[in-house]
Amino acid sequence: MEFDLENPLTDLEDLTSDSVASLFLTESDHMPSHSYFSSLQAGDMDILVRREAIASIAQFSCNFDPLLSYLAVNYLDRFLSCHLMLQPKQWVIKLLAISCVSLAAKMKKTDISISDFQGDAGIIFDTRTIGRMETLILGALKWRMRSVTPFSFISHFISLFKLQDPPLTQALKARAVHIIFKAQKDINFLVYNPSIVSASALLSASHELFPLQFPCFQNALSNCSYLNKDNLLHCYNALQAVVLEEYESVSEAVSSTVTPVNVLDQIFSSSESGKSNTVTTLRLERDIKRRKISHYCHNQTVHVSQIRQF
Description:
By secondary structure, this protein is mainly α. Among the domains are: about 30-140, Cyclin-like (Cyclin A, domain 1), CATH 1.10.472; about 150-245, Cyclin A, domain 1 (Orthogonal Bundle). The chain is about 65% helix and about 0% strand. The protein is built from 14 helices and no strands. The protein is globular. Keywords: Cell cycle, Cell division, Cyclin. Belongs to the cyclin family. Cyclin D subfamily.
């Protein structure tokens, strides 16, 4: 049966109280070691190795379910946290990425041919070589392949919100999933339990989509006995940097496109003075957009007192 990241420990559609408790109790077994983040942050392990491996995973799995890629990166981080790779050769990084994707595909019951991985930069791996690397990864992960990820907690947390409208519930879930995918590449989120990342992503999504109901959602998650409120606060606020960066990139893309205003500016800026005024105007518009975005995300920041009051 295909492995479901949203329901890793049971085949039942509805999570029981026992299965939910099991998720919280076992989630730390599916995380990188505690020293992994500090090693990346201190430079003991080259962060570029992780970035290159993730880029390769994305390349090899781009035509498949995005959850397959997420699962492969989870395997990657857990393996790297056990095997310090200071400056591995490029072919080793490629082999590691291929093997993580291959293992994730097997768990997801996805058919992937070895030929899909060949022909990249002249590096060719046979089935036996990939199999050996897979065995090495399995040993590092202690054969715990049914990873507990942030996706495993989404249904449980959403049920606490007691939303009555299925389309709104789906919209909230879709936005939270998007934020979780964005956060995986950032090493700062490696220190948080999957449940904390999941709850924080849902808080961020709910503030964007349902600002009037946000206090109720915040209260519901704060009352969850399994969640550490301080960690929830720090993770939520860290996610705002991810959201801000996303909005800024969108704003920059919009500002760079041709608009009626830009066209009119170009028509009436034939003189040198006109050109100067146009540049000043565009810069002013961009600065105003940045201030609006910063103000929006600043309003989303939750302080300790706000969480602890519930």
